[in-house]
UniProtKB/TrEMBL annotation:
PANTHER family: CYTOCHROME C5, PTHR40942. Gene3D superfamilies: Cytochrome c-like domain. This is Cytochrome c5 family protein. Residues 1-19 form the signal peptide. It comes from the Bacteria. It holds the Pfam family Cytochrome_CBB3.
Length: 96
Protein backbone atom coordinates (compact mmCIF):
# COMPACT_ATOMS: atom_id res chain seq x y z
CA UNK A 1 0.00 0.00 0.00
CA UNK A 2 2.86 2.37 0.81
CA UNK A 3 4.28 1.85 -2.68
CA UNK A 4 0.96 2.79 -4.28
CA UNK A 5 0.73 5.96 -2.21
CA UNK A 6 4.34 6.90 -3.00
CA UNK A 7 3.79 6.29 -6.71
CA UNK A 8 0.59 8.39 -6.72
CA UNK A 9 2.34 11.23 -4.87
CA UNK A 10 5.24 11.17 -7.34
CA UNK A 11 2.83 11.23 -10.27
CA UNK A 12 0.99 14.22 -8.83
CA UNK A 13 4.21 16.10 -8.20
CA UNK A 14 5.48 15.50 -11.74
CA UNK A 15 2.16 16.67 -13.20
CA UNK A 16 2.32 19.88 -11.18
CA UNK A 17 5.78 20.64 -12.57
CA UNK A 18 4.60 20.32 -16.17
CA UNK A 19 1.51 22.48 -15.56
CA UNK A 20 3.66 25.29 -14.10
CA UNK A 21 3.04 28.26 -16.36
CA UNK A 22 6.33 29.95 -15.57
CA UNK A 23 8.32 26.81 -16.41
CA UNK A 24 6.50 26.38 -19.74
CA UNK A 25 6.94 30.09 -20.48
CA UNK A 26 10.68 29.90 -19.76
CA UNK A 27 11.00 26.79 -21.92
CA UNK A 28 9.00 27.87 -24.93
CA UNK A 29 7.59 31.41 -24.84
CA UNK A 30 10.22 33.72 -23.39
CA UNK A 31 12.16 34.05 -26.65
CA UNK A 32 9.46 36.12 -28.33
CA UNK A 33 7.19 37.33 -25.53
CA UNK A 34 9.91 38.82 -23.29
CA UNK A 35 10.96 41.27 -25.99
CA UNK A 36 7.75 41.60 -28.01
CA UNK A 37 9.32 40.03 -31.12
CA UNK A 38 7.16 40.14 -34.28
CA UNK A 39 4.29 41.88 -32.50
CA UNK A 40 4.08 39.26 -29.73
CA UNK A 41 2.51 40.88 -26.66
CA UNK A 42 5.10 41.28 -23.93
CA UNK A 43 4.76 39.23 -20.80
CA UNK A 44 2.80 40.92 -18.02
CA UNK A 45 1.92 43.91 -20.24
CA UNK A 46 -1.78 44.28 -19.45
CA UNK A 47 -2.30 47.01 -22.05
CA UNK A 48 -0.92 44.79 -24.82
CA UNK A 49 -2.86 41.71 -23.73
CA UNK A 50 -6.26 43.33 -23.04
CA UNK A 51 -7.39 43.82 -26.67
CA UNK A 52 -6.14 40.36 -27.62
CA UNK A 53 -8.00 38.79 -24.71
CA UNK A 54 -11.17 40.64 -25.65
CA UNK A 55 -10.91 39.77 -29.36
CA UNK A 56 -10.26 36.11 -28.53
CA UNK A 57 -13.20 35.91 -26.15
CA UNK A 58 -11.12 35.04 -23.09
CA UNK A 59 -8.46 32.57 -22.07
CA UNK A 60 -9.94 29.69 -24.07
CA UNK A 61 -9.83 31.83 -27.20
CA UNK A 62 -6.19 32.71 -26.55
CA UNK A 63 -5.49 29.00 -26.10
CA UNK A 64 -7.10 28.24 -29.46
CA UNK A 65 -4.96 30.92 -31.11
CA UNK A 66 -1.80 29.56 -29.46
CA UNK A 67 -2.65 26.07 -30.68
CA UNK A 68 -3.30 27.14 -34.28
CA UNK A 69 -0.66 29.88 -34.50
CA UNK A 70 -0.98 33.50 -35.50
CA UNK A 71 1.20 35.78 -37.58
CA UNK A 72 4.84 34.84 -37.02
CA UNK A 73 3.94 32.41 -34.21
CA UNK A 74 3.73 28.82 -35.47
CA UNK A 75 1.06 26.46 -34.16
CA UNK A 76 1.84 25.64 -30.52
CA UNK A 77 4.44 28.42 -30.47
CA UNK A 78 7.79 26.85 -29.66
CA UNK A 79 6.22 24.07 -27.58
CA UNK A 80 5.08 21.41 -30.02
CA UNK A 81 4.78 18.82 -27.24
CA UNK A 82 2.84 20.98 -24.76
CA UNK A 83 -0.58 19.89 -23.60
CA UNK A 84 -3.55 22.24 -23.57
CA UNK A 85 -3.11 22.62 -19.81
CA UNK A 86 0.55 23.55 -20.20
CA UNK A 87 -0.19 26.12 -22.90
CA UNK A 88 -3.04 27.57 -20.85
CA UNK A 89 -0.80 27.82 -17.78
CA UNK A 90 1.85 29.65 -19.82
CA UNK A 91 -0.76 32.07 -21.19
CA UNK A 92 -2.09 32.72 -17.71
CA UNK A 93 1.47 33.36 -16.51
CA UNK A 94 2.03 35.89 -19.30
CA UNK A 95 -1.20 37.70 -18.44
CA UNK A 96 -0.47 38.19 -14.73
Amino acid sequence: MKKVIAFAAAALMSTAVFADGEAVYNKACVTCHAAGVANAPKTKDAAAWAPRMEAAGGIDGLLAIAKSGKGAMPPMGLCATCTDDELKAAIEYMLK
